[in-house]
Amino acid sequence: MRRLVWHVACGVLLVVLLYPVVWLVLSSFKPAEEILSSVRLWPERFILGNYAEVFGGLAGISVWRFFANSMMVSIGAVIGTVVSCSLAAYAFAWLRFRLRSPLFAFMIATIMLPIHVLLIPQYTIFHRLDMIDTFWPLILPKLLATDAFFVFLMVQFMRGLPSELGDAARIDGCGPFRTFGYIVLPLARPALVTTAIFTFIWSWNDFFSQLIYLNTPRNYTLPLALRLFIDQTSETSYGAMMAMSVLSLLPIALFFFAFQRLLVQGVATTGLTG
Description:
It is a single chain. This protein has helices at residues 2-27, 32-37, 49-55, 63-94, 100-109, 115-128, 136-139, 148-159, 163-171, 176-187, 189-205, 208-213, 222-225, 238-258, 260-269. By secondary structure, the protein is mostly helical. It folds into 2 domains: 1-47, no CATH class; 58-269, MetI-like (MetI-like fold).
């Protein structure tokens, strides 16, 4: 009976969590007037015109352009974050140098720093470098290990690796870089995949930063392109907005399901000591 109650409670919670997603998918097949007026979940009449309107383009720009922009920003952010944060985490976890502990504490303290505090200084720097309305302000900071959360996650994972592996690598003549490439990096794959997945999702769904730095519609990503449905023709096109929202969720879902096993393994083993 206890197990039955537990499964029923989990099922009810799952329904509550998935309801907005199901409503979004079904609303993408509804006419705009039915989305606003009807309280039924299931459409009274299925239509495909919303998706036809999306693939017809927005403001003379193909929807694939927005997908390509989002993909470029997200993949650049993933590569930059994984490379820079793994190097920083390796230094904090395996190397010995002066002020290591104070620097690590300072890095952890930056997690509590709001993004709004850094917005004006960063915008000023990129404006002077003539990088506004380009993708560089969204990718370049990721190459500098600015995401302290992912550095901390990898540090906790790398500290759980046996130190004897490093000793054996040094005996065989491996330096710090070869030890990182041949020993630490392959064993830290779950933490790297976890970082890649969360970075991809956060970059793909980011709206605020992209709104600040991207001004031209041809450079818009998907979150910004959704704004074009608002008052596009003196009224909001809710049906097409729902259809494009569904399409924007597909890459995230595919990326998550492709690496789901490694994500769970990375979250479950991070922080464990071997």
